[in-house]
Amino acid sequence: MTQSLEQIVHIGEALAHPVRIQLLYMLSERERYIYELAKDLNLSRQVVDLHLKRLEKAGFVESDLRLEENDMRAKKFFRLKEFDVKLCTADLKDIFR
């Protein structure tokens, strides 16, 4: 299936930062909540959230909110979606014809 130019750009932008690549690796091990990711990366939650939003927009990760039973706080968990990134010359020819 040929991807649109916009889809290819979203994928390229999502993979264009070392932190986002590291997030993909971390999420390949198991799902995690955003504060845990921020702590492990030594970054603010806001910065990690921006990177995760970019990955989510490109279709690499998905998230859901869960309430902790002991204190009823909401935690946003992220998990990696199955993906295979490939761009070949035939795709480019199909897009620009």
What report would you give on this structure?
With 97 residues, the protein is an alpha+beta fold. The chain has one domain: Arc Repressor Mutant, subunit A. Helix content is 53%, strand content 16%. It has 5 helices and 3 strands; from the N terminus they run ααβααββα. It has helices spanning 5-14, 18-29, 34-41, 45-57, 89-96; strands at 32-33, 61-67, 74-80. It has a 3-stranded antiparallel β-sheet with strand order 1-3-2. Strand 2 and strand 3 (74-80) form a beta hairpin. Helix 2 crosses helix 4 and helix 3 (34-41) crosses helix 4 (45-57). The radius of gyration is 16 Å and the shape is elongated. It starts with a helix and ends with a helix. 15% of the residues are buried. The mean pLDDT is 91.
